[in-house]
Amino acid sequence: MSASAVLPIPRAMTQSPPKRAAPSRAKRRSIRRAASPEADAPPARAEPSEPAPAYTIDELTATTGIPSRTIRFYQSSGVLPKPDKRGRIAYYGPQHIERLELIGTMQDRGLRMRAIKDLVGKVDSGEVVLNEWLGLEEQLSSAWADDTPKLSTRAELNELLGPRRPGFIAELTRGGLIEAQADGGFLIHSPKLLQITVRLDDAGVAIEVATEAAEILRKHLSKAARELASLFTERAGDGFGKDDSVAGISDAFRELRSLGQESVKLIFAREMEQVLRKMVETGEAARLDKKKRRRAKRG
């Protein structure tokens, strides 16, 4: 029989050792701080931020290349904020340089000072987001047709026209389609309209008649364009554009660029179709042949 079977085991040996009370949260924080190697380190000081650069008006002129007289004119016009005064000296900052760049950009795009003042006022008040406005302005001012005037030598013009009757270039000049230059070359005002005129001449439509027809179209389409622009401006954000934001109106003009030209082409085709059909129905087309025979007899 073993000794453990006859001798009672002491109670202290059968019980778990008493649990130590957990340290409080504050005490744990103090312990962690004491154990941290950075506990005794002094708090880090924030690096002082560098002051924004300041320019006198002469320094601003040297930086931007804009004369001081022009800078003062912009100030008096209300498009350039006033500088900060330190005693008797006026100082300009980066915001003035940004504004001067914006003014130059707007002038390059053809805006007058009154329009620039109105724009910067709306930008400063938050009414207009500049990048969105620039996108709209680009839509409004960009070309709708890839048909810019072109300078051409006589040899290039002859190659473009192909074999023609004597005096053909003089007819184009009288019709205002081309303009002779001092160096012997020519300015083609509208290369695409010149191509159309040449093709019409091949079909038997005289240059004089073609240019007169072009003037009729220009007169009526110019009026239509002004009326449409007024309509779209009046209904901007309220029927023209998905919403009244600059971006929404800009998107509408972007789509109008292609769809508007398709609409003009379609409407013109339908109108001409109706007019010519009416000429047939009323017998006016038959009179065209009589006029032709009459001219032939006079010849």
Task: Give a quick set of tags describing it.
single chain, 299 residues, mainly alpha, Multidrug-efflux Transporter Regulator, Chain: A, Domain 2, three-stranded antiparallel sheet, two-stranded antiparallel ribbon, 14 helices, 5 strands, 62% helix
Short structural summary:
This protein is mainly α and 299 residues long. 62% of the residues lie in helices and 5% in strands.
What do you see in this structure?
The chain is mainly α and 299 residues long. The model is unreliable at 1-23 and 26-39 (pLDDT under 50). Among the domains are: 57-128, Multidrug-efflux Transporter Regulator, Chain: A, Domain 2, CATH 1.10.1660.10; 235-299, no CATH class. The protein starts with a helix and ends with a helix. The chain has helices at residues 3-6, 11-14, 25-35, 57-64, 68-77, 94-108, 113-125, 130-141, 154-161, 168-174, 191-202, 207-234, 246-282, 284-298, and strands at residues 84-86, 89-91, 150-152, 178-180, 186-188. It is elongated, with a radius of gyration of 41 Å.
Topology at a glance:
Layout: H1 3-6, H2 11-14, H3 25-35, H4 57-64, H5 68-77, E1 84-86, E2 89-91, H6 94-108, H7 113-125, H8 130-141, E3 150-152, H9 154-161, H10 168-174, E4 178-180, E5 186-188, H11 191-202, H12 207-234, H13 246-282, H14 284-298
Antiparallel strand pairs: 1-2, 3-5, 4-5
Global outline: elongated
One letter per element, helices H and strands E, the order comes to HHHHHEEHHHEHHEEHHHH
Structural class designation: mainly alpha
Sketch the major β-sheet: 3 strands, antiparallel
Proportion of residues in β-strands: 5-15%
Strand arrangement in the largest pleated sheet:
3-5-4
Please report the total strand number as a whole number.
5
Could you say what the CATH architecture of the domain at 57-128 is? Orthogonal Bundle
Q: What fold name goes in the CATH topology slot of the domain at 57-128?
A: Multidrug-efflux Transporter Regulator, Chain: A, Domain 2
- The low-pLDDT segments are 1-23, 26-39
Instruction: Indicate the percent of residues in helices.
Output: 55-70%
Cα gyration radius (Å): 41 Å
